[in-house]
Specification:
Strand order of the largest sheet: 3-2-1-4-5-6
Helix content: 40-55%
Distance between the termini: 42 Å
Order of helices and strands: EHEHHEHEHEHEHEHEHH
Number of helices: 10
CATH architecture of the largest domain: 3-Layer(aba) Sandwich
Largest sheet: 6 strands, parallel
Strand content: 5-15%
CATH topology of the largest domain: Rossmann fold
Length: about 260
């Protein structure tokens, strides 16, 4: 399948490399010409175990390409990922200017139906804003074209991102479009062979799922830090406490380390 990824950062580059590895034809678009030039020379901007050989081998075989040409990227992909940064705004909320800029770019250059996928970590309701931006831009250009917007959040751990992407615990698809669901099931079929990992839901639920997962993990770590403080106060061993509560299958051992 022809895939385009806007944003060659942590999430975008890992996703692009893994999709190329299973045979998809991927074009990565970024505004940073220096980053594109370095990637074509085999210089990877981030360190993640297994990522450098994965990117370089797929680039050499022509399955992943890098460019600053947005029109080329939009023309290439029937599925287009938005994986740009969402830095905190002055009030702490996510700044969606880069997401919205990509949405406008896609609408400006698209000539046929596109499936637009939000991969960036974005607030609930972002898909609605992307739809409004794409629709408004198409209308201003007198272009009568259809498109789908899907929420497909990432759940990557630093230091294990390639493995997490190759062997995902779950694949969340936020869409109510049968066409988009069918295409994305096809896209992710190489990662969904042993058992069905795809969970389809409405867009807003998918967007909230990402934040809920992050909050739950942060809560477990924060809780264990408080227990570690209490253990020190009472003269208890937090490692023994961790083993004691982790043996309860309702709690489990994952992410109950203080730190």
């Amino acid at each position: 399948m022809k895939v385009t990824v806007f944003g060659i950062g942590y999430v975008g580059l890992v996703q692009a490399a893994v999709l190329a590895e299973v045979g998809h034809d991927v074009v990565c678009v970024d505004v940073d010409q220096n980053k594109v030039d370095n990637l074509e020379k085999g210089i990877i901007p981030i360190y993640e175990p297994g990522l450098t050989p994965l990117v370089n081998s797929n680039f050499e075989q022509g399955r992943v390409k890098f460019t600053t040409d947005a029109e080329r990227g939009v023309s290439h992909g029937e599925v287009i990922f938005i994986a740009v940064g969402t830095p905190p705004d002055e009030d702490g909320s996510a700044d969606l200017k880069y997401v919205q800029a990509v949405a406008k770019t896609i609408a400006t250059h698209m000539q046929n139906h596109k499936i637009i996928i939000n991969k960036s970590t974005v607030p609930v309701g972002t898909a609605d804003k992307v739809i409004a931006t794409v629709s408004g831009t198409l209308k201003s250009l007198n272009k009568e074209l259809t498109f789908d917007v899907v929420s497909n959040p990432e759940f990557l751990k630093e230091g294990a991102a390639v493995n997490d992407c190759m062997r995902p615990d779950r694949i969340i698809l936020g869409t109510q479009s049968d066409h988009a669901e069918k295409k994305l099931r096809e896209l992710y079929s190489p990662f969904n062979r042993n058992h069905d990992k795809i969970i389809v839901m409405d867009v807003r639920s998918a967007e909230l799922t990402k934040y809920a997962a992050n909050c739950m993990l942060a809560t477990k770590i924060s809780f264990m830090n408080e227990m570690a403080n209490l253990a020190e106060l009472f003269g208890a061993d937090i490692e023994n406490v961790r083993k004691g509560i982790g043996s309860d299958p309702r709690i489990g051992y994952q992410f109950i380390y203080p730190g």
